[in-house]
Amino acid sequence: MLTLENVAIRQGDFSLRADFTIQAGQRVAVIGRSGAGKSTLLSLIAGFFPPEEGSVLFDGQNMTKAAPGKRPLAMLFQDNNLFPHLSVAQNVGLGVRPDLRLNQVQKSLVANAIERVGLSGLEDRKPAQLSGGQQSRVALARILVQDKPLVLLDEPFAALGPALKIEMLDLVAEVLEETGAALLMVSHDPQDARRIAPMTVLVADGVAYAPTETGALLDNPPPALKAYLG
Ligand SMILES: Nc1ncnc2c1ncn2[C@@H]1O[C@H](COP(=O)(O)OP(=O)(O)OP(=O)(O)O)[C@@H](O)[C@H]1O
């Protein structure tokens, strides 16, 4: 569903190449040492900047120059991006319509997503009145209502404790299983990859390598990954 075709990215003296495909519904982790280019790769796919060379295709359609909002993806980056002055329901509703003028069908879509992530009854709270884990659930509900075939996550649960993080990862895997969306998830923790991503993209030495099987990659890491895993 997503193809990076001979892509080359340059930011100052940093460069990164990528040439691979993510299949529909595939869950893929993105790992590599700090500064390797994981966030840069996701930003490129999201459309925040164009590649210097190569093409970005969604379902075979060349969208290299398409604006972020025109791409068939939903994204969640570090710190959840919730609006503090809006309620839970409004924060989720933004995923449906940025002006929040929702019709009945759209309102029930929002209610269903809130229920799916286990936040029924908290619709009217503001983010500050929620725990960190609950805030992550709101952000996930907003991803759900967007109903996009690709979800990009960049360390979204890094601020949560280990038990809560596992709970959120399992919830992400569950809901993506239900919706059939593909996932690209940046993580610093190889155990996150093992938990929910059967495939992994290793970013190292200026290359985002094609997805390989997560277990095999982590059990038999190439030198660049071995150095990172320690
Ligand atoms: N706007 C920019 N201009 C120039 N260089 C940049 C810019 N943004 C990032 N870089 C550089 O690009 C490289 C990749 O950064 P990136 O944030 O993608 O790495 P990362 O693998 O996500 O790291 P981390 O795990 O620490 O988040 C780094 O060397 C960084 O310094």
TrEMBL record:
Residues 2-230 form the ABC transporter domain. The lineage of its organism: Bacteria, Pseudomonadati, Pseudomonadota, Alphaproteobacteria, Rhodobacterales. Pfam families: ABC_tran (PF00005). This is Thiamine transport system ATP-binding protein. PANTHER family: SPERMIDINE/PUTRESCINE IMPORT ATP-BINDING PROTEIN POTA, THIAMINE IMPORT ATP-BINDING PROTEIN THIQ. The keyword Cell membrane applies. It comes from Shimia gijangensis. Keywords: ATP-binding, Cell inner membrane, Cell membrane, Membrane, Nucleotide-binding, Translocase, Transport. One of its GO terms (molecular function) is ATP hydrolysis activity. GO terms for cellular component: membrane.
